[in-house]
Amino acid sequence: MGARTTTNSGRAALVTGASSGIGYAATGALARAGFTVYAGVRKEADAERLRACAQGVFPLMLDVTKPEELAAAAQRIGDRGAALHVVVVNAGIALGGPLEFLPLERFRHQLEINLIGALATAQATLPLLRETHGRLLFVGSISGRITPPFVGPYAASKAGLAALTDALRFELDSSGSGVSVSLFEFGSIKTPIWEKGRSSIDRLEELSPPEQRRYYAYVPDVLRGMLAHEARSGTDVEQIARFIARVATTARPRERYLVGGGAKAGAFITALLPVRMRGKLLRKVMGLP
Q1: For the chain, which residues score pLDDT lower than 70?
Q2: What is this structure's pTM?
Q3: With CB atoms counted within 10 Å of each terminal CB, which end of the chain scores lower, N or C?
Q4: 54-79 confidence digits (pLDDT tens)
Q5: Among this protein's residues, is 154 annotated catalytic?
Q6: CATH class of 11-286
């Protein structure tokens, strides 16, 4: 990135959603960069795997939808020796399906983890970050700008995250916090979230009501094709993790970063094409009726 970097001695980082994918890789990259890394997971098996991934990694049982676990994690970090300088807000899931028939509890679940959980993580850790003039790094998606059909729940959570990070940045700046806020707008990345997405598609197909199958019978195959494309063309997750570690140590982090396959192209299309033309392009690319 060409920027001057800071020294990491005695510094800690927290990564949420560290059991796999971006979170797991970022945990290792930050540990190798010299941070003491607290890695949020929900299963003991994932904790054991993280302990073995790199020296200086300390797993925490952490569900971002549970305020008491966030408070306990912040307390534990605050009680340890290394001061908290970086929080990677990564925990998330990807849900999809036709919005016309989407069960509202699924939509709420999507927002509860990806959006409300992100804010809850920031609120729990900001007292520690204010002490160090640290930084919040939010894992977003280019889907928050250009939204393919049938991934509306996921895209809505990432569009909301973009708005949330902008507002939070302005507010923290105006309050003199010294805390920086950055948003990664990632494109295609090779992570297990797409494998989990396949399972979600299978359940969607099994549980869809007759009316949904009548109008949207083609959707599961379309979504499987999208996931296969992501798996083939996505940027290697270790490359993404190294980028996050560089941003964690650069002296002047930017407000937003477009990273990964298709991210810059997606941003360009959003800026250039009207909404209707974007819709026609997406339908053509996806082979929709």
Answers
A1: 1-9, 192-200, 231
A2: 0.91
A3: C
A4: 889 999 999 999 999 999 999 999 99
A5: yes
A6: alpha beta
